[in-house]
Design brief:
Blueprint (H helix, E strand, L loop, with lengths): L9 H5 L8 H7 L6 E4 L3 E5 L9 E5 L11 H21 L4 E6 L15 E6 L6 H6 L8 H11 L2
Antiparallel strand pairs: 1-2, 2-3, 3-5, 4-5
C-alpha cells in the first residue's frame, strides 16, 4: 500500500470531533468566530470544516429552521444576497472557474445536518476531481481553513 504523508494536516485531523448541538447555532453564538466568514442581520456564512473542495462555504439563516417553507421573505432575500457576497469573495481569493450552489433538503437528499437549513457554495476548477477520491477514498485540500478564512475576511476590506 502506498502512503501519502501530510504531517502538516495533524492539527486539522486532531480537531475532528463530533459537535454537540447545531453547528450553525453554535457559530452564531460563538465569541471566537474562527470559521465565520461574515454574518448579516438574518444569515451567517462559514467555512465547511469537512469541505468537498477548498473554499466550500455554507450559508444558513440565523434562525433555526429546517425547510425553505419556513423562511420569511426577508430571510430568503438575505440568504441570496449572502450567496452573491460569498461568491464575490471566493472569486477574488480563489478565482474558481465555476461553482456548485445548492440545498440538500432531507437525509435522503444528502443532508448531513437536517435540522438547520443551509446552502452549499462549492468552488470548482477544471480537473479538480482527480484519482485520489476514486481509488483511495481520499480528498486532498490544498489550503488550511485558518488561512482561507483570513484571506476571505481580508478580501472585503
Amino acid at each position: 500500500m502506498d502512503k501519502l504523508w501530510a504531517p502538516w494536516r495533524i492539527n486539522y485531523v486532531g480537531k475532528m470531533r463530533k459537535t454537540k448541538g447545531c453547528i450553525f447555532c453554535l457559530a452564531k453564538k460563538s465569541k471566537s468566530q474562527d470559521y465565520v466568514v461574515f454574518k448579516t442581520k438574518s444569515s451567517i456564512c462559514l467555512l465547511n470544516i469537512y469541505p468537498y473542495n477548498n473554499g466550500h462555504l455554507l450559508i444558513s439563516p440565523l434562525r433555526h429552521v429546517a425547510d425553505i417553507d419556513l423562511l420569511s421573505e426577508e430571510e430568503i432575500l438575505d440568504i441570496f444576497k449572502c450567496v452573491k457576497r460569498a461568491k464575490r469573495l471566493l472569486g477574488k481569493v480563489l478565482k474558481p472557474q465555476g461553482y456548485n450552489l445548492g440545498f440538500n433538503l432531507g437525509r435522503s437528499a444528502g443532508a448531513g445536518i437536517t435540522g438547520h437549513l443551509h446552502l452549499h457554495i462549492v468552488p470548482r476548477w477544471s480537473g479538480d476531481s482527480n484519482f485520489m477520491p476514486i481509488i483511495s477514498d481520499t480528498k486532498v485540500i490544498s489550503q488550511s481553513l485558518g488561512e482561507l478564512v483570513r484571506l476571505l475576511k481580508n478580501a472585503e476590506k
